[in-house]
Amino acid sequence: MNPFYEAALNENRRQFLGRGVNAVGWAALSSLLAKEGLATAASPLANNPASGVGPHFPPKAKNVIYLHMVGGPPQQDLYDYKPKMEEWFDKDLPESVRNGQRLTTMTSGQSRFPIAPSKYKFAQHGQSGMWVSELLPETAKIVDDLAFVRSMHTEAINHEPAITMFQTGNQIAGKPCMGSWMSYGLGSLNENLPKFVVMIATPSNRDQEQAISGKLWSSGFLPGEHAGVSLRSSGDPILYINNPQGVPSPVRRSTLDGISKLNQVKYDQLGDPETLIRMKQYEMAYRMQTSVPELTDLTQEDKATIDLYGEASLKPGSFANTCLMARRMVERGVRFVQVYLNNWDVHGNVAGRLPSQCKDVDRATYGLITDLKNRGMFDDTLILWGGEFGRTVYSQGQLSKENYGRDHHPRCFTIWMAGAGVKGGTIYGETDDFSYNIVKDPVHVRDFHATILHLLGFEHEKFTYKYQGLDQKLTGVEQAQIVQALLA
After folding, report:
1. Cα distance between residue 416 and residue 93, in whole Å
2. 398-419 pLDDT tens trace
3. pTM of the predicted protein model
4. Model pLDDT, residue 21
5. How far apart are CA 190 and CA 197, in angstroms?
6. How far apart are CA 414 and CA 216, in angstroms?
7. How far is 78 from 354, CA to CA, in rounded Å?
8. DSSP label at residue 195
């Protein structure tokens, strides 16, 4: 049987009707426009994923660097200073504070919930007077460039749904992530590099890492070209980017040309848009054979820049290295850079694990912000930092003055934003003395997403993609608000 005829027979009803409705609709529209003398060769409303569908108004940010701390950093040990907890050491969390809120199965069976005050010292910094832990001395120097949200909250209480919620706006996998939405909306600034790149940093301490899978940077129902491209720290930076052994570039070029012709025949027969995407991705991979080696060559960086990020920036896969690479990417036009740093899931041994986690991020974060400012890129780049939830004020497991553990806590936690369109030095939201409940200005994940989309030039209610009969949105169907206080 002819393979193209067989593929047409296997076309499902949704695909057929989708293409049929479009054909009938455009035929009707063309007829109406022709009567009015308005018909054109190409409608300006046509979706062109390569160039992006375009923002609704001029964006503040043209690039995003999202530093996700996988596992949930303990807010009361880093940014949410709670001095009154000193007098509560080893006392039970009052039921009036917990108020029946659900717990994870890791602590729900505990006979008591003893308060664990932070063992770390805090001090105020900058004109904003932001309280910062002694674990983050370099970050403390740039607090007036950052906007802190101390009242973030989410419904998800376990890692997988919580991180999926932050990345895609939904606890259930299968939706496009933020990077894919941005790729779809704003398009490319460099045809030789992907619009959306993902890097997974290796923490110094690897006691308790969470699973990080490719579905977090999936394009979901958006066209496949908007999925994130994973950049590796060892071997080929991108899988299969180099020619196979014994295959010279002219042979590779000839092979791709042949494959492209075959794909074009298939597209002409079936009209499947995924075929066009496949053709584009082959060509992108070919162009990246030149652009990626140049991108990853850190010998181009001077000593002053390396000193900003620290010597760890020269170690492939370190968080400092990914931050430096993130700057190089946005400098070359990559729209969205996603960095994951694992091992923040401090159920136990906070004293043994938290210092190394903070050492990984502190100098590197300071270096990234300072480097962007030095190069005049800070005002065009949106930087995001935070985990998928926070940690409990009560201890999981054994408690002492010098060590303790903290369980998952979605009720309140701290994130920060910086750069394009963000009002530096802002401290937004308040929690109670236990860092357990929000007492002022709550910010949900949906509000976080709506604010990001606003900075990218999109009205979150109108930035949609038709799928399964619905106008799908990053912010979902529930109400979301732009947090105006965070905007410059």
Report:
1. 28
2. 999 999 999 999 999 999 999 9
3. 0.84
4. 46
5. 13
6. 21
7. 10
8. S
